[in-house]
Amino acid sequence: MQNKVTIKDIAKALGVSISTVSRALKDHPDISESTKTLIKNFAQEINYRPNVLALSLRQQKSHTIGLIIPEIVHHFFSSVISGMEDLSYREGYNIIICQSTENQFREAAALQTLIDHRVDGILISLSKSTQNFSQFKKAIEEGFPLVFFDRICESVETDRVIMDDTEGGRLATEYLINKGCSNILHLAASSHLLIGRYRRDGYIQALKDHHLPIKEELILKCDTQEEVLTLQNHLYELLPQIDGVFAVNDSTAIALIQILKKKGYRIPQDIRVVGFGDGPNATIVEPALTTIEQKGYDMGRESVRLLLQRLNNPSASISYQTRVFPPTLKIRESA
Fold first, then answer.
1. How far is Cα 296 from Cα 69, in angstroms, rounded to an integer?
2. How far is CA 231 from the centre of its chain?
3. Looking at the chain, which terminus has fewer C-beta neighbours within 10 angstroms, N or C?
4. H helices then E strands: how many in the chain?
5. Does pLDDT of 64 surpass 70?
6. In the chain, pLDDT over 70 holds for what percent of residues?
7. pLDDT tens across 278-323, in order?
């Protein structure tokens, strides 16, 4: 292994003091421009890189942010990451990304790994299976600022960035009602997952607003493509009595469209379908999916902004904030 070049080596090669090299590399005003140029050019020629670990120990900052997400392949989370990295890179921070794969134990292990690596702060979107939040409270007690985004935890007091999921569910359902639907199936997420609960609340609110009955048999826990396939026989039994579907996410809505077409149903003539998310597949599916747009990029940037606000003002007393993004209905051919 090649030995790492140090500022001591640069000082020896150029016949200057170690402190002169250190200050020149930091653009210190006491060092002349000619000396700075000489030292910087030489450092570049020999591929000098500062010792990040030593710097972080001296500054007590790693300039690293930890991120825990359920899955990277999901379009929403990939757009969130893009927004986060754009802002964090501009502000001199790197992001370490961990994936929980919707598993609370992997999520807890990822959190501990980030803490062990002394990241400056942590951004989290909860897994579907997480119901124990003690590890997050412990992290805050140990001095790690947290920001929850999208899938949040109400019992842990911290900054949050969310979509107005209740309003999104209401908008989607009301659109179906205004199109003449009166028997609307809701493919829902688990009730312990707040985004699922809020989207279902919006669905129920729209039915109440339009004086339509709430039929529990038309609220079905089914929030993945795999669950649509597993429950397809039950779904086939429900199809004759429904004229609209509001799915908790796009992937579930698209899977349902596929089995509707397989059974000979015309969309939207026989059954109208609305999803939630507005990923790339929403425009590829035939017919194109009417859905609620999630502003992943903007939510990612805002999550980093809230975290940096705390990291850059560690001694300031800043009240916890919840940033709520409004939903937008993207109308296409499926409804």
1. 13
2. 28
3. N
4. 14, 12
5. yes
6. 96
7. 999 999 999 999 999 999 999 999 999 999 999 988 777 888 999 9
**In what side-by-side order are the strands of the sheet with 328-330?**
219-221, 184-188, 244-247, 272-277, 290-293, 328-330
Residues 323, 77: Cα–Cα separation, whole Å: 17
Q: How far apart are CA 158 and CA 227, in angstroms?
A: 33
Q: Which two tokens stand for residue 239?
A: 């199809």
At residue 151, the 3 state secondary structure works out as coil
Q: pTM for the complete prediction?
A: 0.80
Lowest model confidence (mean pLDDT) among 41-50, 88-97, 102-111, 216-225: 41-50
- Cα–Cα distance for residue pair 22/312, rounded to 1 Å: 24
For residue 317, count other CB atoms closer than 10 A to its CB. 5
Residue labelled with tokens 């090649």: 2
Cis peptide before 268 (omega within 30 of 0): yes
Cβ(189)–Cβ(248) below 8 Å:
yes
- Report long-range pairs for 27-34 (Cβ below 8 Å, ≥24 apart): none
The span from the CA of 320 to the CA of 243, in Å, is: 43
In order of 5, 15, 60, the CA distances from 12 in angstroms are 11, 5, 29
3-state helix, strand, coil in the chain (%, to 5): 45, 15, 35
Q: Which residues, in sequence order, are CB contacts of 173 under 8 Å at separation 6+?
A: 184, 186, 202, 203, 205, 206, 207, 246, 274
pLDDT higher than 80, residue 1: no
DSSP-assigned states of every residue in 154-171: TTS-SEEEEE-HHHHHHH
With a cut of 90, say whether residue 85 has pLDDT above it. Answer: yes
CB of 202 closer than 8 Å to CB of 210: no
What type of residue is 111?
L
Amino acid at 229: L
